[in-house]
Amino acid sequence: MAPTIVCFAWVLSLSGLGCMLAVTSAGAWERDLCNGEARALAVTTTGDVVAAGTLLHKGPPDHPNGGTGVVKLRGGSGEVIWKRIFGGDGHDLALDLRDNVIVAAEGRHGYRPVEFTVVKLGARDGKVRWRRDIRHAYAFAVATDPHGDVVAAGSLGFDNGVDNGDWIVVKLSRTHGAVLWQELASRTV
Measured between alpha carbons, how far is residue 93 from residues 61, 152, 174 in Å? Predict the structure, then answer.
């Protein structure tokens, strides 16, 4: 299989002995997107691969400067199962008990990040199940607990363009993304 160079990401499948089984690109996106960064990777319970990151240049109409890209690939062949793009910068991903994909991102409004964004995508089709945005904060990490609820963490924004040093941890309901609790930690901790 001859690899094709694309702008988003490469996924390598290796055997237990380290022999290369497949090299797969994330495929061409619907828009001309280049200069992105794949930042997170997970393997589902069925062996499929999910990657997420940031795509730069011509993003979706509501976020023309780029977006968060998520792609799901078949573990054995590298074939694209589904791919999604939405505004912002993708930083992390996690899988829940049913292999649904949860993405932590910086939501964007033009060039300025303004939202702590967590999105849950369906395992089978990649459709948005729910989305939670918290204004003036930035999501950088995400995980799921043993019940499938989502925990995300990030930075609590900027004051006059300067990082204020505070951070936030939020627990969200697995079913609708409702905030179950949130805790703020300041630089005085």
Answer: 24, 10, 15
Q: Cβ contacts of residue 4 below 8 Å, gap of 6+? A: 25
DSSP 61: T
Backbone conformation region of residue 57, classed left if phi is above 0, alpha if psi is from -120 to 50, else beta = left
What CATH number was assigned to the domain covering residues 10-145? 2.40.10.480
Q: How many CB atoms lie within 10 A of CB 103?
A: 28
Rounded CA separation 170/115 (Å): 13
Pull the structure tokens for residue 54.
Answer: 């940031």
Residues 59-90: tens digit of each pLDDT: 555 555 567 888 899 998 889 999 888 777 77
Integer Cα distance of 38 and 177 in angstroms = 25
The pTM of this model reads 0.75
**Residues in Cβ contact with 170 at an 8 Å cutoff, skipping those fewer than 6 apart:** 116, 118, 132, 134, 151, 152, 153, 179, 181, 182, 183
Amino acid at 82: W
Do β-strands 89-95 and 101-109 pair in parallel, antiparallel, or remain unpaired? antiparallel
